[in-house]
Automatic annotation (TrEMBL):
Species, as recorded: Pseudoxanthomonas taiwanensis J19
UniProt KW Repeat keyword: no
Name this polypeptide is given: Large ribosomal subunit protein bL31B
Family recorded in the similarity comment: Belongs to the bacterial ribosomal protein bL31 family. Type A subfamily.
PROSITE patterns hit by this protein: RIBOSOMAL_L31
Keywords in alphabetical order: Ribonucleoprotein, Ribosomal protein
Biological process annotations from GO: translation
Amino acid sequence: MKADIHPEYREVVFHDVTSDFKFLTRSTLAATAKESVKWEDGNEYPLVKIEISSASHPFYTGKHKVVDTSGRIDKFQRRYAR
């Protein structure tokens, strides 16, 4: 790899503001973080606020609903039923 062309990859705390869920992971978004937060281990990390994560996304929380418009699912199942 070439030197000095890659963004810094370090620990960052992501905060899902919808569900007030925080998690620590590694990311290159540390440079864009304007805030920092003290984590459970006592260290201070950059804070990146996001609007949706696995803690608030309907698919992962089980609140996902399949909207069947004009019977598309039934039409598909009839067409390919054996």
